[in-house]
Design a protein that fits this description.
mainly alpha; single chain; disordered C terminus
Length: about 425
């Protein structure tokens, strides 16, 4: 009893410290994806950098503490130690001077051990929607530029594809907090976002992935509980989710390396695939011009994000996450990303979290074309690897459900 009391005494301030740092870092990165950052906060850039640097050192200490104290036994410590080692080596060997966002991202994952994903999710939802709405309002009031490319609007965000990814991220968080069982008004909100996308933004990939997420959630909530699914189908479903990144990564790298202007190739024949075609083309250009190294190569990019005067004529940006990480972050980080998501899906499969596996799959599909797999404001799924997704009350309710129904496909365990 004394040990439990002592643990509670230091766990509470540690949790508060972690959630506070996460809130600050998440808000900074989300803010940086809006024109508010460039228009109103540019005088505070040095202050932001100083705070960011201090958070790095606090998180480093918190990561070491977490590995030593919260991970029990030798074997569970191996992977978090490896993540921390890669983060520190990345900072040491990388020649490019940038903010330590990647290292902070990795340390936030380690420090999420025994933290509540529900708290992390609520922080993300409040912060994310706060910035999206305030940015859109400021844009409509004329306080910040209205970014328009042709007839495509970004509603105050740097670029419409980024905003579409924010929509997807925030809906994924909502789905996880609700355990795959959304309220009617939340479905209405999701389909409103789809309407905004298709009518104004026209971000095809973001629209498709959000649609798949909502369709899968509707099936999980309203169809699956009334249907017994065979063991073979269940096993194949888990394999599909588990091997998703192991299939998508080589597939996208292969398509990039073999990109051709041959008019008979599918992506050149179908107009709806122009987005994929252009991103494969730019990835092939990077392969022709830049080397692949252990810790990444500097690649000067010119994107439309933040541009208020018109479309960039010499656009060059690596949007495919897997290609981007391989070139810009290097082989070591590339390997860590693959291991991270494979391990995450294995943990979810072992816990029979079939819905969470689906959410991760949708995100990995989105990252086949979008570049946000390692960005704090877009990807908080890896925290699921170590944090507490459910409360004790959830576990008790789930146990009763398993005992009464016997159908693990309708259960949501972690």
């Amino acid at each position: 009893m004394e040990n439990n009391s002592l643990n509670n005494e230091w766990q509470r301030p540690i949790n508060i410290l972690y959630y506070s740092i996460f809130a600050g870092i998440f808000n900074y990165h989300f803010m940086a994806s809006t024109m508010l950052y460039g228009e109103y906060f540019k005088d505070y850039f040095p202050v932001f950098s100083d705070i960011y640097d201090k958070c790095y050192w606090i998180l480093l200490g918190l990561s070491i503490f977490t590995v030593i104290v919260l991970f029990k036994g030798v074997k569970p410590k191996i992977f978090p130690i490896a993540i921390l080692a890669v983060a520190l080596l990345y900072d040491h060997f990388r020649d490019i001077t940038t903010m330590r966002s990647l290292s902070i991202f990795l340390m936030l994952i380690i420090c999420s051990k025994e933290k509540s994903y529900k708290v992390i999710g609520v922080i993300s939802l409040i912060s994310g929607w706060g910035w999206v709405i305030s940015s859109a309002v400021a844009c409509k009031m004329g306080l910040i530029p209205d970014i328009v490319f042709g007839n495509r609007h970004s509603l105050g965000s740097i670029y419409m594809t980024d905003l579409a990814c924010h929509f997807l991220t925030l809906m994924m968080v909502t789905c996880i907090i609700r355990k795959g069982k959304l309220k009617i008004w939340e479905y209405a909100g999701a389909f409103a976002l789809l309407a905004v996308n298709i009518l104004l933004m026209k971000a095809k990939v973001g629209f498709l992935c959000l649609f798949i997420l909502m369709a899968g959630t509707l099936y999980y909530q309203y169809v699956l509980p009334h249907n017994q699914i065979g063991i073979g189908i269940k096993r194949n479903y888990k394999k599909m989710c588990f091997f998703a990144i192991l299939i998508l990564v080589p597939l996208m790298i292969y398509l990039t390396a073999t990109y051709t202007t041959d008019p008979n190739v599918l992506y050149n024949k179908v107009g709806a695939l122009d987005t994929i075609k252009s991103r494969l083309m730019l990835g092939r250009k990077a392969m022709d011009q830049y080397p692949i190294t252990f810790w990444g190569t500097y690649i000067p990019e010119r994107g439309n994000g933040g541009n208020t005067t018109g479309v960039v004529t010499d656009y060059f940006f690596l949007d495919i996450s897997y290609v981007r990480v391989l070139f810009k972050e290097g082989i070591v980080i590339f390997a860590l990303v693959i291991i991270l998501f494979v391990k995450l899906q294995k943990v979810l499969a072992d816990c029979k979290c079939i819905y969470l596996m689906f959410v991760v799959f949708v995100f990995l599909l989105d990252c086949s074309i979008e570049h946000h797999i390692l960005e704090i404001g877009y990807d908080i799924l890896p925290y699921l690897l170590f944090c507490n997704v459910f409360t004790k009350e959830d576990t008790v309710a789930l146990t009763k459900q398993v005992q009464t129904s016997g159908n693990i496909l309708t259960c949501y365990k972690c």
